[in-house]
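Record type: ASSEMBLY
Status: queued
Input:
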Amino acid sequence: MAASVQPIEPNSRPVASPHDHDIVMHCDIRELFYGNFKAVRDTSIPIKKNSITAFIGPSGCGKSTVLRCLNRMNDLVRGFRFEGKVRFRGRDIYETGIDPVAVRRFIGMVFQQPNPFATSIFNNVAFGLRLNGYKGDKAAKVESALRGAALWDEVKDKLHKSGLSLSGGQQQRLCIARAIATEPEVLLMDEPCSALDPIATRKIEELMTDLRKKFTIAIVTHNLQQAQRVADYTGFLYVDTSMGGRTGYLVEFEQSRKLFEDPQHKHTKEYIRGEFS
Amino acid sequence: MSAHSSAQPGLPVLPGALFGSRQGEITQVPSPLQRAVDVTFRRLCHAFAWFTILLVTFIVLRIAMSAAPAMREQGWGFLTGRVWDANAGQFGILAQIWGTLYTSILALILGTAFGVAAAVFLSEGFLGSTIFGLLKYFGVHLHPWWGRLPDQIERILKELIELLAAIPSVVYGLWGIFVVIPLIRPLCHALHEHAGWIPLFSTDLSGPGVLPAVIVLAIMIMPTVTAISRDALVSVPVKLRMAAYGLGATRWESIFAVILPTASRGIAGGIVLAFGRALGETMALAMLVGNSNQINLSLFSPANTLAALLANNFPEAGPREVGLLMYAALVLLGITLVVNIMGAFILQRAAKNAAE
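Status: finished
Output:
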């Protein structure tokens, strides 16, 4: 049931035109297992350059699982098995010989729970730079990352303080700064606002639309308004319980505006109208 | 309707109770028995807690009182004298203090290195991923029994390491004399022959000595370090591991840069506890350290410790010597106390730094 993307007219927002060479990643999942449990099937999502692609769907539909496929975080789960392809820079990241650690350096990730390390704000942001053996001016990179995450003004006088001393919203922006410090091409965000209050959420959303200029973003959210507000493209996943399992699959993938205003599929319509969650 | 006026005539209203129950209500004020049990339990807990504190005070006080005559007689010279000779009437415990600290610190270094390494191995799933890879190769990783194997083996290993703590000290002593010393003697001999200019190897191992004592002591304290470090490592939040892996850290980078520092407070707690145990360990050391009052950097020379001094001299001690031994015991107690307080202080500082 993999939905294909039709060529679309320019959006109201400055979205890159969706030609094939604009597709940074192409995620094509045929089957995905955790042990004997089939978690996701038939999901094909293109992720376009300098855009925000959102995955929405009811709980347990595998949207986070799909996101974690994109930088091979699922490899850390025992019993994980993947059939399909995730194309990135002309290669399949699941190809034999590709180091998942390398994949994760090019494709950054921000998690649901803010998870700064128990060290100073500076060291948190510089962590990735150190991993990558960055030889240049670390302080400058840390500053630009913190500015990029709209956190600089709040922390510039206490860079040596522990990252854990910040508020939840600040911690999440610190994690974003940490992820973008090494300037990865793609940024994955797994429900980045679900642990935050509305004001912090709004800040992160503004930040995301800002970051889109420089990065390509894929986000999982259970907040429909959020997807509507920030995402250029939205994929709706649904969970198939017909065979006694709980297998997620992609129902519809469209430009966000189109998906929310004129959903084609029955499940999408019901979900967007709030008839189930 | 107020609570007072609604009290039913037949039901007793307890003094101090706000409500009486109405007819047919399930809710009741706590019965006198419930209250009595509550109060008794609380008082008992209080009493036992205070009893422990009193007991510690009593022990220290009694030792100090028994030591008082010797303290008056010997003064501080007792701490700086190097000779313990009952016939000559010379008593000093500097060599024992040195031996206690030297063996404990060396054992701590060795035991911590092995203990933390074992804890990392057991908590970070190295074994699990190896075995799981193997099972996957044979295609039985999803099997209900085989798939659980890695976790089972890890649990067994953990139990085995903790079992090391259950071996009686005297058995360790015997094992040290009849296994460790013959085993390390050729190596020690060679080291002394070829690298004797290094102070650590400046004497030959003639039998009991610092090194066998340190090895056995390290094995004895390792389970403490391992168990506590493992708990600390396991309790490092998964989200921090994910953060490190998500940034593209390898397993080692995650362990060294994120997981170990995050768990460092718990690990430090384990080390302090282990140090306390090493300082007080008596039997194995009395059997292995050589009981010779020397102050020597050499790993192969015999030495003595405070605990061994006490154990060796009590049987033949006269009233005067008992006082002297009590003095030595008080010194040992003091060292242990200082170490524990320092440890607590370090932990507190670490906690504060982490929170800032």
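Annotation: The longest helix of chain B spans residues 32-74.
Annotation: The beta strands of chain B are 84-85, 90-91.
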